[in-house]
């Protein structure tokens, strides 16, 4: 028996587990629990079980102070942190801060979860980029989707997609207007700006610095931050008829968990593989939730595995020039390649084993900037790790990624 091999395998396994220690701890913006719709409370929930674990802030009970982040001065005691309700929140796991925008108030606020003392500490920044009070009388201008992305910045999107903002999360908060979100050419009748299909909901992020919008009406879009192009990639099925998808977060297994502000029907989860939602049995049905926020990213485990294997056995440089492979691991003999911001033309996709032996070659014609191409594997592909390499028509290297077939 090769003891050295076993030790190396164990080290790799332990290292992968250490990278993958993401948590189910999530923050939910909820009502009071009396079948009400006052989204002003903050509760900690385990989205693996869907059960409330801790009351963080209760609007009539919790002691707090509010601080102007720029002047460091205390604000009037009469103003409550979530007084006008909240529909967009994001958790920064690196600094342990919960960011949010109160409805009808043009401010970015955050709760410092590290702060000591009897009173919770909330900070606020006022910005015209978050709309004036008059502008917020129009529902289209409300920020209802927010997330901390892989680059460490926060992103928020208003209902009609006319304003995508970026904000830093360090000591000095900087807010930048990135402009409006636009539809991918393939969206056709399902537009990112359509009120009936695409307003409300929440936003999550993946480990490749992409954003995903889950609208209140169950439509799912991928969003490229640089181009601001939103592509409709699916529609969630399996939810109760009155279940609006207002909160979304990624669980420790890489599945997307959704909660409703309108229905008291528990938490549901689904994957981007089939968009079929299933109930988390025993999940909370007392509190509705207008938003969910945690520090997990889609595809984080796949990125961590790639890092480990790269450190132990570098095969080729791993580049991601605006494209990536998903879902990864592959469980149904097919995966997608996201050609993002690639020039139109012919590309070659080669799948090899780790020794470099070619197992499949396919030619792909890219016509749009955010094209998604499905690659189907035959039954000869045994379980294991493979390399996906993409080159252009002149055989210039575009990117390579590792893919795990289950």
Features:
406 residues; Neuraminidase; Immunoglobulin-like; 5-stranded mixed β-sheet; 8% helix; globular; disordered N terminus
**Record field, number of beta strands:** 29
Uncertain segments are: 1-21, 309-322
Q: Describe the strand arrangement of the main beta sheet, using strand numbers.
A: 4-8-7-6-5
Distance between the termini: 26 Å
Q: In percent, how much strand structure appears in the residues? A: 35-45%
CATH topology term of the largest domain:
Neuraminidase
Task: Decide which structural class fits the backbone.
Answer: mainly beta
Number of helices: 3
- The Cα radius of gyration reads 22 Å
The CATH architecture of the largest domain can be named as 6 Propeller
**Could you give me the name of the CATH homologous superfamily of the largest domain?**
TolB, C-terminal domain
Apparent shape: globular
Q: Helical proportion?
A: under 10%
Mean pLDDT: 86
CATH class categorisation of the largest domain: Mainly Beta
Largest sheet: 5 strands, mixed
Overall number of structural domains: 2
Structural features, described:
The strands form seven sheets. A five-stranded mixed beta sheet has the order 4-8-7-6-5, with no helix packed on it. Strands 13-17-16-15-14 form a five-stranded mixed beta sheet, with no helix packed on it. Strands 3-2-1-22 form a four-stranded antiparallel beta sheet, with no helix packed on it. It is globular and about 70 Å long. It is built from three helices and 29 strands. It is 8% helix and 40% strand. The longest helix is centred in the N-terminal third of the chain and has 17 residues, at 3-19. By secondary structure, it is mostly beta strands. It has helices at residues 3-19, 195-198, 300-312; strands at 25-30, 41-46, 51-57, 64-68, 86-92, 97-102, 107-112, 120-126, 143-148, 154-158, 164-167, 175-179, 182-183, 202-205, 211-214, 219-223, 229-235, 247-250, 256-259, 268-270, 278-279, 289-293, 323-326, 334-340, 345-352, 358-366, 370-376, 384-392, 397-405. Residues 1-21 and 309-322 have low confidence and may be disordered. The chain folds into two domains: 22-298, TolB, C-terminal domain (Neuraminidase), CATH 2.120.10; 311-405, Immunoglobulin-like (Sandwich).
